[in-house]
Amino acid sequence: MSRSGLSLALIVASAGYGTRLQSGLPKQYVPLLGIPMLQRTLHALSTCPVVDALAVVVNVEDVEYCYGEIQNEHIEKIVKVTPGGAERALSVRNGLRTLAELGTWDLVGVHDGARPLITCAEIAAAVDALAADVSLDGAVLAIPSADTMKIVDDAGLIKSTPVRRYLWRAQTPQIFRWRVLMDAYGQSDEALLGATDDASLVEARGGRLAVVQGSPENFKITDRVDLRHAEQILAERRG
């Protein structure tokens, strides 16, 4: 439990195959300086004092393998490894249902298994934001956009340029009050499949959310360039 007194459970979304990485195996198992990506992510989360419980969602055929690896590596705080669904939102819902079978927490969040560079300080900042403002339904780690963004139509023609200071790049974990996220994921499959992240589901139901500034290093690894960048950062941290 954090210094705020709020308990926190995290769902680690690690189902999927990450074909853009072109690694020949699901990207969550691709090694980063010799250690699988998912293992690095789980160690970062499990050693963070503000995190109380972890539910890991993986491809159905990987559940037994992940259980074995977690036991071998003595990764603490993992309460369950559960199979994912056909889409990310359905996998997150599976993780929520698994947690609900085990208990309740003040806060529940979702973190991408492919963001292994997350730090405890970033998680704590999101939790502190929710502790400081009880009217908030959730807090989303994000960074201000460094690029000018364009709105285009289906033909690729530019229609408008939004004001950059209002644009933030959402990251994970995205952390919510327990009941808020449970209710958001209580919708039909059709409603869930249209969501691009967890916060958008809460937003659509009128939730009050805030961004908490994160770090550019907490990026999602999707391709070989990201992989090389992550290894460079890990080497610098280790050095």
What does this 3D model show about the protein?
The protein has 239 residues and is α/β, with parallel strands linked by helices. Helix content is 35%, strand content 23%. The strands form three sheets. A seven-stranded mixed β-sheet has the order 5-4-1-6-10-7-11, with helices on both faces. The protein has a two-stranded antiparallel sheet with strand order 2-3. Strands 8-9 form a two-stranded antiparallel ribbon. The longest helix is centred in the middle third of the chain and has 15 residues.
**Strand/helix succession:** EEEHEHEHEHEEEEHHHEH
Level-1 CATH class name? Alpha Beta
Q: Roughly how many Å is the radius of gyration?
A: 18 Å
User: Which structural class fits the helix and strand makeup?
Assistant: alpha/beta
The CATH homologous superfamily is called: Spore Coat Polysaccharide Biosynthesis Protein SpsA, Chain A
Principal-axes shape call: globular
CATH topology: Spore Coat Polysaccharide Biosynthesis Protein SpsA, Chain A
On the 0-100 scale, what is the average pLDDT? 93
CATH architecture: Alpha-Beta Complex
Largest sheet: 7 strands, mixed
Strand ordering within the main sheet? 5-4-1-6-10-7-11
Distance between the termini: 30 Å
Total DSSP helices: 8
Low-confidence stretches: none
Helix content: 25-40%
Tally of DSSP β-strands: 11
How many domains is the backbone divided into? 1
Task: Determine the strand fraction and express it as a percent band.
Answer: 15-25%
